[in-house]
Specification:
This protein has about 250 residues and is of the alpha/beta class. The chain folds into two domains: about 5-100 and about 215-250, P-loop containing nucleotide triphosphate hydrolases (Rossmann fold, 3-Layer(aba) Sandwich), CATH 3.40.50; about 115-205, no CATH class. Helix content is about 35%, strand content about 25%. It is built from eight helices and ten strands. The chain has helices at about 25-35, 75-85, 115-125, 130-145, 160-170, 190-205, 215-225, 240-250; strands at about 5-20, 40, 50-60, 65-70, 90-95, 100, 180, 210-215, 225-230, 235-240. The strands form two sheets. It has a six-stranded mixed β-sheet, sandwiched between helices. A four-stranded antiparallel β-sheet has the order 2-3-1-5. Helix 3 packs across helix 5 (about 160-170) and helix 4 packs antiparallel against helix 5 (about 160-170). The N and C termini lie far apart (about 40 Å).
Length: about 250
């Protein structure tokens, strides 16, 4: 793994989403307000845009555990996707130094027709794992799923719990320098849940930087020393986790 210390810096970073065929704005405004926080604007050419992030500036250094809070549509997921390279800023700059893994969508890259074993390879490749790393890790991943002979059956034949176990096992097989999460991953029956929580703790501990979005005050205060409060795509407050939590959640 790269020995360079991880680092994140955003300078006046904005993300706009164009809305095409937005002729009926009265209706669309009401719908989009519920989904995005209501920040809708027009470009100079008259095109309608949703302002996902607006002039975000922040720095996150190696060793930091940062939580994100805000109402649904405040921009948390958009920010996480910028940090993980899924979205590119439409304005400003985003500098991300370090190997980053996003656990926003652990089912990304799963093929229902492929076997569990094949899906481990597919998902691992999408997470940036090299063939040698996959071959080295696949035995441990399969063992963690506890799927037995089902590992060579098509993914579509799995129960929902089995699907989640496989997706979770492969998604947490890496130890990235930067870990980006939308809520804490945990699934399955009580036995698997205990193992999943332990595995998540190991992944988080190994990361140089953690960025975790959550609605859980307890989870955020347990894992983060710094909280960033987003509102309508802007930073409302950035500081000590206890201080921000008191303002956001209330006493």
């Amino acid at each position: 793994m790269n020995s360079i210390a991880s680092f994140i810096e955003l300078k006046n970073t904005s993300v706009d989403f164009p809305v095409y065929n937005a002729g009926s704005l009265s209706l669309k405004n009401r719908v989009l307000s519920a989904v995005t926080g209501g920040k809708i604007g027009r470009q100079h050419n008259g095109a309608v845009v949703i302002k996902g992030l607006q002039n975000i500036s922040l720095k996150i250094k190696a060793g930091e555990r940062v939580g994100l809070v805000g109402h649904n549509g405040a921009g948390k997921t958009t920010l996480l996707r910028v940090l993980s390279g899924i979205y590119h800023p439409t304005g400003g700059q985003a500098t991300i130094v370090g190997e980053c893994v996003s656990l926003i969508n652990i089912g990304l890259g799963i093929d229902p027709e492929a076997t569990g074993r094949e899906n481990i390879h597919l998902r691992a490749v999408m997470m940036g794992m090299r063939p040698a790393q996959i071959n080295q890790s696949i035995g441990e991943i399969i063992a963690f799923t506890n799927l037995g002979d089902f590992i060579d059956m098509p993914f579509r034949t799995y129960s929902t719990g089995m699907q989640l176990r496989l997706a979770f096992a492969v998604s947490t097989a890496v130890r990235p320098q930067i870990l980006v999460m939308d809520e804490w991953l945990s699934t399955g029956d009580e036995d698997f849940k205990k193992r999943a929580d332990q595995r998540m703790s190991e992944v988080v501990s190994a990361a140089q930087i953690l960025v975790l979005a959550s609605h859980s005050r307890e989870l955020l205060l347990t894992n983060c020393k710094r909280l960033i409060w987003l509102e309508h795509g802007k930073i409302r407050m950035d500081g000590d986790a206890e201080d921000v939590a008191e303002k956001y959640f209330g006493v």
